[in-house]
Amino acid sequence: MKSAPAPASSMPQQPDPKELAAEIVKALRYRGGKDANVATPHDWLTASIKVVRDRIVDAWIASTKQIYDAQAKRVYYLSLEFLIGRLTRDAFSNLDVMAAMREALASLGVDLDEIATLEPDAALGNGGLGRLAACFMESMATVGVAAHGYGIRYANGMFRQEISDGWQVELPETWLDHGNPWEFERRERSMEVGFGGTVEAIAGPGGQDERHVWRPQERVLAVAYDTPVVGWHGRRVNTLRLWAGMPVDPILLDRFNAGDHLGALAESNKADALSRVLYPADSSAAGQELRLRQEYFFSAASLQDIIQRHLSQYGDLHSLPDKAAIHLNDTHPAVAVAELMRLLMDVHGIDFNAAWDITRKTFAYTNHTLLPEALESWPVPLFERLLPRHMQIIYAINAQVLTEAHASGQFDGGQISRISLIEENGERRVRMGNLAFVGSHSVNGVSALHTQLMKETVFADLHRLYPVRISNKTNGITPRRWLFQCNPGLTALVREAIGDRFLDDIDTLKDLDAFAEDAAFREKFAAVKRANKERLAALTAQRLGIRLDPSALFDIQIKRIHEYKRQLLNIVEAVALYDQIRSHPERDWTPRVKFFGGKAAPGYHNAKLIIKLANDVARVVNRDPAVRGLLKLVFVPNYNVSLAEIMIPAADLSEQISTAGMEASGTGNMKFALNGALTIGTLDGANVEIRQHVGEDNIFIFGLTAEEVAERRNNGYAPRALIEGTPELAQALAAISSGVFSPDDPNRYRDLVSGLYDHDWFMVAADFDAYASMQRRIDAVWRDPAAWHAKSIRNVARMGWFSSDRTIREYANDIWNVTA
């Protein structure tokens, strides 16, 4: 990692553990109001965080001053999610105070590892997109990119998942109930955000063009909360700024005194809802409206903040693209394109053409999906009611783009219709993906396959109109979180083998490749993996009462529950394997534990049904003595970052089995491989590049390619005949459909299974044979421990390229035009 030099004052000095201990006791007393004799573990955690946070602040201020003095360009990363997880280990480790803090706390009779587990996971994200944003923020600080992350400070965020009788139950995630010691409230950075109302056209003086004034009907305040993001060795500290909704008037006192108590608090409740829950269910009109309100709320507040900062230093918005790179993480903040145009034209008096030039040069957009339903669009009446001026601006932008497309002579009527920012077929909707595309100077995919498919499918016509706008930036993960912190045993073993250079230059991890054929090293590597599996087995016993044998193959699929990610394929294969183990007890079966984890969107019926199916199958299989413990299924509730940090180092096999052509990249696949798990997967997303880096012999690829999936869908795929010609699959589906695993409700899974017979859009049946055959090949490799561990070591050694530091340098050089 070739990081930019940091300000001298920001480089941390190694603290004396005795001095740290004294500071912790002082913080406990004067900032927490507690004596050491009565302090609880939570008190010790908060005091420890405050002591380290004080040191971070010095580096934070120095980093900010350095950028200001140098008049350097800043990156502003807008994301509806930041799945940052717990920050204690991250900050302590990156500031180089972990060992000293551990010793200081031990001298006070406190175990750092124990109190660190008390920190709640910040409920600021759902899955890969939010975790990527968190990795990117840490890497930007590490490689020396001056950056602000902008998002929403969700009080409850993504729900806390419990499993009741096998069903997912959604409960509020109350992570902020006792405050957040890492954050700083910036009440002086409150921004006013409006909704609804009317737009007036006012003639300009001396016959100049008219200008528009938006007069919102509703106004709320966005209040800033800042969290410092520490780079490796504390070289730079950047800012994650999250917005909380507050009412302009907390209570309408006249209405309250008149007896209308609920009405008096209506505005307060509306404002509070903006930062209450991540991804409110959008199956209702009210849910759709709240989602759009959230997206505009944080985008508008962030742009006001960016413009104020720019004007205070430079005084002229024409230089904005030279000093600010604003990045849209998926379509959620795409409304920022229209909002910046509004601010430039209506507030700062810049004409349309100049404003459009500034806007396009300032924004860049990352696309994360090829699923049409995930490319957000909003009904025109809803959009126009909530954001009337923005609707006018979008029509004006659309006129410019469609005129350009028509003038090029390249497009017929249907193609121009697909380029339009307004969907005209059926219900008229605003296409946010198209708005983000045309409003950005750069659009990128997140893996080589995903980027190519963007050009060929969802953005084919826009790519033809703007042929140099799309580029690829394959995702990455921060090795600090996903190796050094979550797998200290493996990190220590790698240091023993190749020295410390990989800690600062992750590419040198490739030196470990030479140890794959070293029998003594393989033995040590196996011992580390065994210890990690024992830790996961202990957690499973404690939380679920399920006892596991750590010598079994730990086969793990943890990710958002969605039909394209094909947890169903995994479960159906488990049922088929269950039948085979009972039918052929004489065979040498490989003991296996299949782990599942992930949340289903509250309104996604089939995804929730798949969770129930996993638990129903587990209940039957785990209790059947005929299986002899050779197969177990475990669904671990409430999957989050902290749980991932335990499960990923314990994995022997990583399930990355999405329908080819549907996963943009994936980052779980990278985390697993970096920790020595072998991948079973399709040629989808970043699996393609992982195979290139780890080698075909060290990954298990199966199934249809993206081209073959498209061909089958286009040429009349008949899943029923295929299922009926595959006895193992047909028997497994018959068992599921007939109620073998749901005797209380024999029809529970009938529709789920009939969907596979009727259309099988996600190619579960089409890929079943290849998947099951590959699992049996994996069994054979597992029975040769030397071969298995050699493959695992090669995976670890060859994953350095997938560092988010590399990804960020590519963004910095190719898109943002900043130094890294």
Would you kindly provide a brief summary of this structure?
With 820 residues, this protein is α/β, with parallel strands linked by helices. The protein has 35 helices and 22 strands.
Q: How would you describe this protein?
A:
By secondary structure, the chain is α/β, with parallel strands linked by helices. The chain has 3 domains: 10-70 and 87-120, no CATH class; 78-86 and 126-475, Rossmann fold, CATH 3.40.50; 543-784, Rossmann fold, CATH 3.40.50.2000. Helices cover 49% and strands 15% of the residues. It contains 35 helices and 22 strands. Strands 5-8-9-2-1-10-11-15-16 form a 9-stranded mixed β-sheet, sandwiched between helices. Helix 24 links the parallel strand 17 (553-558) and strand 18 (592-597). Helix 14 (380-386) crosses helix 15. The longest helix is centred in the first third of the chain and has 30 residues, at 41-70. It is globular, with a radius of gyration of 27 Å.
Fold blueprint:
Layout: H1 17-30, H2 41-70, E1 74-78, H3 88-94, H4 98-107, H5 112-116, H6 128-143, E2 147-152, E3 160-164, E4 167-171, E5 184-195, E6 198-202, E7 211-215, E8 218-230, E9 237-247, H7 253-257, H8 261-264, H9 266-274, H10 285-314, H11 320-323, E10 324-329, H12 335-347, H13 352-362, E11 363-366, E12 377-379, H14 380-386, H15 388-408, H16 413-419, E13 422-423, E14 429-431, H17 432-438, E15 442-445, H18 448-456, H19 460-465, E16 470-472, H20 479-485, H21 488-498, H22 501-504, H23 519-544, E17 553-558, H24 567-583, E18 592-597, H25 605-623, E19 631-635, H26 641-650, E20 653-656, H27 668-674, E21 678-681, H28 687-694, E22 700-701, H29 706-714, H30 719-724, H31 727-738, H32 750-758, H33 764-782, H34 785-797, H35 804-816
Parallel strand pairs: 1-2, 1-10, 2-9, 10-11, 11-15, 15-16, 17-18, 17-20, 18-19, 20-21, 21-22
Antiparallel strand pairs: 3-4, 5-8, 6-7, 8-9, 12-14, 13-14
Helix pairs in contact: 1-2, 1-4, 6-35, 10-12, 12-13, 12-15, 14-15, 21-23, 23-26, 23-34, 24-25, 24-31, 24-33, 31-32
EC number: 2.4.1.1
Protein name: Alpha-1,4 glucan phosphorylase
Modified residues (N6-(pyridoxal phosphate)lysine): 671
